[in-house]
Amino acid sequence: MKHVLESVESQFEMFQILNEDGKIVNKDDMPDLSDEELKELMRRMVYTRILDQRSIALNRQGRLGFYAPTAGQEASQLGSQFALEKEDFILPGYRDVPQLIWQGLPLYQAFLFSRGHFHGNQMPEGVNALSPQIIIGAQYVQTAGVALGIKKRGRKAVAVTYTGDGGTSQGDFYEGINFAGAYKAPALFFVQNNYFAISVPVEKQTNAKTLAQKAVAAGIEGIQVDGMDVLAVYAVTKHSRDRAINGEGPTLIETLTYRYGPHTMAGDDPTRYRTEDLDNEWEKKDPLVRFRTFLEEKGIWSEEEENKVIEEAKDEIKQAIKKADEYPKQKVTDFIENMFEELPNNLQEQMEEYKEKESK
Ligand SMILES: Cc1ncc(C[n+]2csc(CCOP(=O)(O)OP(=O)(O)O)c2C)c(N)n1
Ligand SMILES: [Mg+2]
């Protein structure tokens, strides 16, 4: 019986291409990206780090509402998004606003989302995405459905979703991956394992050695990847997307990452549940640092280039927050109007009532 029991414990080794020192450790899997594409990836990571810093500052000034910091998770978020196409459909979690922005959500709308304004949830024409999910894990079930829809229509696209380590404890997580597996639906299920669900460490979340191995029970492909290595995340996403489009089914992708900031800006204090040693350990793995080293050694990145991106980001953020400030305040009728295609009677009555009030 012993060998049978042992065979159940599948090995899920972390996939990596670029190590902490910015050296390629896995030439065979190096993705086929041009110098321009490599620079674009760096540009997006730098831009997103600045956006995070500015968003935190704007939140403290009372100029933004809900905000979940992203610093540390750039390679995981942007490396995956970079492998997607316009026709793919994204179902993000609350921390995944950067993927939406790079998929085409204008920055001022991301700011309106943060403020709870309905226009922040209205994806522009051609951006296939839902607004960020707040209910942990719910996007996994929705993704299985969207992926099945894509398959039934015969489209060459995938549905892509993101949750955290904590999200893998939800029933929706298992339902989503199982259903997509059963229908070989073209879905990519990301688990961004940043080791904490607010203050709860992943060891208290599950007895599983990896989160990627949860794919086994659903009969789908599962892989654990260094989430601080943008090249590895990109390569895995590209590979999984190709498989999904070829009818080979969904993939569960666990990215090992870390959020440097607090859980959200609503009063979380990470020093109460994370040690300085742990923070330091992950600072050494910083996705921007190692990719910068790699690009500089290749001779295609410089401090001047980076400063240009930083200035550009700051400028665009300034413009976007101004545009968000100037956007018409939302009215009660906006809420009602955006709830149903056809209003039920009781809401119709409220609509009339508020139209009357708002007209004064
Ligand atoms: C169904 C549900 N339960 C509880 C919460 C409250 N909650 C918000 S974030 C969070 C932790 C999620 O952690 P994780 O999935 O690891 O994602 P991370 O925030 O680390 O990116 C919890 C429990 C919620 N939003 N939805
Ligand atoms: Mg987490």
UniProtKB/TrEMBL annotation:
Q: Which GO terms describe its biological process?
A: branched-chain amino acid catabolic process
Q: Which PANTHER family match?
A: 2-OXOISOVALERATE DEHYDROGENASE SUBUNIT ALPHA, MITOCHONDRIAL
Sum up the protein's function in the record's words: The pyruvate dehydrogenase complex catalyzes the overall conversion of pyruvate to acetyl-CoA and CO(2). It contains multiple copies of three enzymatic components: pyruvate dehydrogenase (E1), dihydrolipoamide acetyltransferase (E2) and lipoamide dehydrogenase (E3).
Q: Name one Pfam family in it.
A: E1_dh
**EC numbers for this chain:** 1.2.4.1
Q: Which UniProt keywords apply?
A: Coiled coil, Oxidoreductase, Pyruvate, Thiamine pyrophosphate
The kind of enzyme this is, by top-level EC class, is oxidoreductase
Q: Which organism is it from?
A: Oceanobacillus picturae
Q: How does it assemble?
A: Heterodimer of an alpha and a beta chain.
Q: Which residues form a coiled coil?
A: 303-360
- Name under which the protein is recorded: Pyruvate dehydrogenase E1 component subunit alpha
Recorded catalytic activity of this chain's protein: N(6)-[(R)-lipoyl]-L-lysyl-[protein] + pyruvate + H(+) = N(6)-[(R)-S(8)-acetyldihydrolipoyl]-L-lysyl-[protein] + CO2
Please give the cofactor(s) recorded in the UniProt entry for this protein: thiamine diphosphate
Q: Which gene encodes it?
A: pdhA
Q: Does the keyword ATP-binding apply?
A: no
